[in-house]
Amino acid sequence: MALSTNLSPDKQREMLRQMLTIRRFEERASADYLAGKIYGVVHCYIGEEAVAVGVCTALGGNDRIISTHRGHGHCIAKGADLNRMMAELYGRQTGYCKGKGGSMHIADFGIGMLGANGIVAGGISIVTGAGLAAQMEGKGGVAVSFFGDGASNAGPFHECLNIAAAWKLPMIYVCENNMYAAQTAAAQTHALPDVAARAAGYGIPGIVVDGNDVFAVHQAASGAVDRARSGGGPTLIECKTYRWRAHTERKGQPDPRDQAEVEAWKRKDPIALLERQLRDQGELDDPGLRAIEGGVMSALEAAVAFAEASPFPLPEQATDDVFAA
Amino acid sequence: MALSTNLSPDKQREMLRQMLTIRRFEERASADYLAGKIYGVVHCYIGEEAVAVGVCTALGGNDRIISTHRGHGHCIAKGADLNRMMAELYGRQTGYCKGKGGSMHIADFGIGMLGANGIVAGGISIVTGAGLAAQMEGKGGVAVSFFGDGASNAGPFHECLNIAAAWKLPMIYVCENNMYAAQTAAAQTHALPDVAARAAGYGIPGIVVDGNDVFAVHQAASGAVDRARSGGGPTLIECKTYRWRAHTERKGQPDPRDQAEVEAWKRKDPIALLERQLRDQGELDDPGLRAIEGGVMSALEAAVAFAEASPFPLPEQATDDVFAA
Amino acid sequence: MRELTYNEAALEAIAEEMRRDPKIFYMSTDALPPLLKEFGEQRVKATPITEAAFTGIGIGAAGCGFRPIVDWRQVTFCFVAMDQIVNQAAKIHYMFGGQVTFPMLFRASVGGGGLVAAQHSQSPYSMFMNVAGLKMFLPSTPYDMKGLIKTAIRDNNPVISFESSRLMGRRGPVPDEDYTIPLGQADVKREGSDVTVVALAWLVHEALAAAEELAKEGISVEIVDPRTLVPLDKDTIRSSVRKTGRLVIADEAGPTAGFSAEVAAVVTEDAATFARLKAPVKRVCALQVPIPYSPVLENAVFPDRNRIIAGIREVLDAKQPAAA
Amino acid sequence: MRELTYNEAALEAIAEEMRRDPKIFYMSTDALPPLLKEFGEQRVKATPITEAAFTGIGIGAAGCGFRPIVDWRQVTFCFVAMDQIVNQAAKIHYMFGGQVTFPMLFRASVGGGGLVAAQHSQSPYSMFMNVAGLKMFLPSTPYDMKGLIKTAIRDNNPVISFESSRLMGRRGPVPDEDYTIPLGQADVKREGSDVTVVALAWLVHEALAAAEELAKEGISVEIVDPRTLVPLDKDTIRSSVRKTGRLVIADEAGPTAGFSAEVAAVVTEDAATFARLKAPVKRVCALQVPIPYSPVLENAVFPDRNRIIAGIREVLDAKQPAAA
Ligand SMILES: Cc1ncc(C[n+]2csc(CCOP(=O)(O)OP(=O)(O)O)c2C)c(N)n1
Ligand SMILES: Cc1ncc(C[n+]2csc(CCOP(=O)(O)OP(=O)(O)O)c2C)c(N)n1
Ligand SMILES: [Mg+2]
Ligand SMILES: [Mg+2]
Q1: How many CA atoms within 13 Å lie on the side-chain side of A141?
Q2: What secondary structure letter does DSSP report for B110?
Q3: If you write DSSP's letter for every residue of D1-22 in order, what string do you get?
Q4: Residue D296 in contact with partner chain A when CB distance is under 8 A
Q5: Which of A88, A199, B301, C188 is 20 to 30 A from residue B278's alpha carbon, by CA?
Q6: Is the pTM of this model over 0.90?
Q7: Which residue in C83, C130, C323 is closest to D127 by CB distance?
Q8: At a CB cut-off of 8 Å and minimum separation 6, what does B61 contact?
Q9: Is the Cβ atom of B119 under 6 angstroms away from ligand 2?
């Protein structure tokens, strides 16, 4: 498969760096979770990196996104600080949420990342409010809702697509169709294979793209951003992709999916695809890749070191921030 | 406009009788409400009678329906007892709900009428459960959800259409599009004028019919019933119609709608249309109509008399039926 | 002083705040005509019937610097938005480590009296009290309404304005000048020495009538109107009970795990107050049933001045606890 | 006697009932493998992530003669279905004049301890207690779990099974024979004479540990496990307090308008019990905050055996109320 784009080689290498950062961050998070240094629950995005990076590359600094329970990729693609992310996973005072949120609740409003969310479809309405805010601000901002195939069956999906369409909100709804909601296959719970088919009911474009092709994702997102910025209203983009790991990181949890299916998708690795593309263009060689990998790894090591060096919150901080002043 | 049907003249006259019953019942309910004999809130269906009657005529005794806050028409079309309906409105012990429900909560599970409902879209999932029950029973029963254009924007509409489609439930979703949700025009809240356009997103038929043409409604419903009974799954039928009266009966409540619009729709009176049709066929003359009207009025008077003669509940009955034995 | 209705007081507060702060906007399933007329469709939005969605939209807009007013109208309609209320609005500031604020006013009418049956006659405020992260109030007068709504709109947190259906048309004095009433400050609506009645909304007025009646017999009733449910003014409640030694709680909601239970606990867990308590606490509440339609039944369910009087007599007649 | 975990006991009860009654079917967002294996896809349905819809579907199927089990899994996921729970399931039997029954079992895990932060660590049962028309229980042992689930499945009303996340893997004896435990019957998990601890779920075990500890000092603690929240066994609670004269309530939920408030009210509004009460009531609850993620913080929020001990000491040290 040949990917096509008119993004500059620098931009393409930056996308590779981001995708690699997501992957290495989560490999580490998974290992540290299993080692007991990270608590609660961790959902990995590995295999789906092209979606977050393809979409966020099409956004500007004032644009806003919201994420799901599977949030690390969106955070990183929107430019979140690895140190504060890792510190949050480690439950430290220096984390994004001062140790109150953990993996399912990382947010950075400063960069327009309105949060991961532990409730399936819980973020869709909130980020639609960011779309409304952008419209009221009148500065051309857009807002992006990331959500899964599972979430696309929930009420807020419908309610918000209709509102965004009726009010012509500058919204992009990005369905990450990884074919499963936890253990349940989308084929069992969706009347049709394409979530994008639902867009027509709201009179908005519904686009299906190969979610492992970062340029295809980027191109669809760019079109939707243009449309949204120019007052054309929302777009639904469905990215067909796959998660490599189990629904959550957990010791000994069986993965009910067909192993052949998992392997087939691994052969469509979005990172390998992008890497090969850059090589084919003559824009990446071994030393170049090593440099990128090296940068990613040292940022990650620094993040882990930062987290480990950071203090835990104090017990009395449990009562801070229930209410704002 | 010429209506077309292959229903027998007797059946057609019976439909006229039902539609007239709904209208006269509500005229009386409205008057008695304003006279203080009926309490709380009353939503009138006048102008939309062809929808309930057209659909219910296509159903059998074991089929089930659910209604909305605007429920009298569905009750009557499904064969509810006028005495117990009126007694319920009068708040009497002999009412369908023993005086506990009132206009918004009349139900008769014995005839497959699963209740009016005070929550917009609140009934859609419940009756989808009746559709599931019918499927599990395996006796060819179907279930019908009546709901408004307003309700079609709410989450349960989407969740249930998808489930019904994915599970191939014997369901018919009947949207009564009267162009308003309380004071708000559908044009303000819907991205597209046709609710039926949403059906495609679930891979099911979406049909638009003239909701004031009882035969058109009946025909669409019959097709959907056949499809449902034969395991073909759900159908969405949108009936374009109009309510003649204000959203609720209330003294001095302004109706924000354009009076010319109201008048135009009154000229499309579904009852007058059916009457004319029967006359044109030579199946109804003045005495025939008077006989039907007479029958309707005496049943109605009997219902009022029954209600007035019935005792109010006793105060101590307030604590009955919180839990079933 | 001029008089406004309870409902007019709310609308006046909102209109004044909207004039003051362009970041405030209003959402409900029907646009309120006076607000729509003054502020236009951009700031007074008629939404589809999607309380879940537009509550969430409010949260998002709040996090982006706006100050939404989300009007659920009758409280019963907000149950479809419960996830956005409980899982998002209440927790988002805390969960994200306080990085931004979410100033929002939610409005919801509560209570019975309208003969509109179980779904439309609810008083579920204690369900929200139980959720950490929400402030809320329930005023009994137009004056309190206006002052509390203004404070709530200026507050940087989600605040629920519960508004009594029975009181909507009730008139009372409201000054012309701008004023606010702090959240968390109870108001002693009548001073007395024999028994404390903690009452909410409509039952404040019923309690006042009961007190008038009992005054004829020389019984002196103190009436505490908490006004705010969260934060609750425990001090005023406790010090009143320390003075009178007796407590009746009058609430239009059912008792179980209700506001009334919380007040009973607040009083009986405080050592100094418990020490002065001369009689069992008494809850005068709705029966614990869904609210029925028929007037005879609805009447049987709700408390009123007579039941408050009976409750007061009960605590006055109660034996002192046996000195153990 | 053989031992099962708390979770296994629930599943065994369900499987036995499903074998007995073909009208029972199960819905949740992922099909539970052992049930799916035994009963197949027709009776064990994996639903889309639509708790609102499949709760409503359960209500409709119940009204048509089936006996659905609706598994929300974590309680937090049922807030999207709150309309169906509060406005429909709880009221439908009453509102329709009792014409048909709606037998349903809802399942929801509650509580903290998993370091899964605010949304996934909730204990909101009192929100449901406040709603008239719902029965509910929260067991502390595998034995109680199995007996209560069986009763609930056979009950003709909506019943919520709240299940403690912390106890899922905890083992305990469960007899082989069929047995049921009536709803509304508390269990005295330990007899004692100095103080009554009313505790729920995990805190029953913490209270038992606290009692063991205090027994060494000669302090005799009675532990009442209500098991059922609605209907609440007021008699057992009150008679225990009449015996001991002192009450501590231990609950993993926050206090405000919580289960703990209800128990405080139930005890202090009863004249005979109030007369014997020698000390203020004491609530040992979670802090009234959303539940934080980090272990240090989560620990700071939840009550445990040490806080129960401190609570017991507090009520033991309390001065008797001054005879007025
Ligand atoms: C309302 C709700 N119900 C159930 C869950 C439990 N849950 C967490 S993730 C998940 C699956 C989500 O699937 P999808 O939306 O496709 O996202 P993916 O995990 O595939 O990225 C489920 C059922 C939840 N978090 N929220
Ligand atoms: C969840 C919810 N929100 C708001 C309301 C108040 N309400 C009652 S009827 C109605 C309009 C319903 O419009 P539609 O569904 O089109 O039905 P119609 O009245 O036109 O028959 C509204 C907003 C409600 N009952 N339930
Ligand atoms: Mg998925
Ligand atoms: Mg309508």
Answers
A1: 23
A2: G
A3: --EEEHHHHHHHHHHHHHHH-T
A4: yes
A5: B301
A6: yes
A7: C130
A8: B111, B112
A9: yes
Q: In chain D, which residues have their Cβ closer than 8 Å to the Cβ of B143?
A: 60
Best of D294, D299, D306 to substitute, by most chain A Cβ atoms within 10 angstroms, is D294
Q: Which fold has domain D187-317?
A: Rossmann fold (3.40.50)
Q: Is C93 on the interface with A (CB under 8 A)?
A: yes
What is the rounded distance in angstroms from the CA atom of residue C68 to the CA atom of residue C44? 10
CB A212 within 8 A of CB A180: no
Query: Measured in angstroms, how far is the CA atom of residue A300 from the centroid of ligand 1?
Result: 28
D120 is catalytic: yes
Nearest to D44 by CA among C171, A270, B136, A106: B136
Q: Delimit the domains of chain D by residue range.
A: 3-173, 187-317
Chains in contact with D, where contact means 3 or more Cβ–Cβ distances below 8 Å, are A, B, C
User: Tens digit of pLDDT per residue, chain C (324 long)?
Assistant: 899 999 999 999 999 999 999 999 999 999 999 999 999 999 999 999 999 999 999 999 999 999 999 999 999 999 999 999 999 999 999 999 999 999 999 999 999 999 999 999 999 999 999 999 999 999 999 999 999 999 999 999 999 999 999 999 999 999 999 999 999 999 999 999 999 999 999 999 999 999 999 999 999 999 999 999 999 999 999 999 999 999 999 999 999 999 999 999 999 999 999 999 999 999 999 999 999 999 999 999 999 999 999 999 999 998 655 444
| CA distances to A274, A280, B132, C71 from A9, in Å | 11, 12, 55, 51
Beta strands in B49-195 (DSSP E): 64-66, 143-148, 171-177, 180-181, 184-185
Contact D308, D197 (CB under 8 A): yes
- Ligand 2, atom 8, lies closest to the CA of B120
CATH class of C3-173: alpha beta
CA A319/CA C299 separation, integer angstroms: 43
Are both C3-173 and C187-317 of the same fold? yes
Angle, in degrees to the nearest 10, between helices A214-229 and A49-56: 40
Structural domains for chain A:
42-268 (3.40.50.970)
Spell out which residues line ligand 1, taking CB within 6 angstroms.
Answer: A 68-70, 118-120, 148-151, 176, 178, 180-182, 247; D 29, 49, 51, 77, 80
Ion ligand 4: residues, CB < 5 A = B 148-150, 178, 181
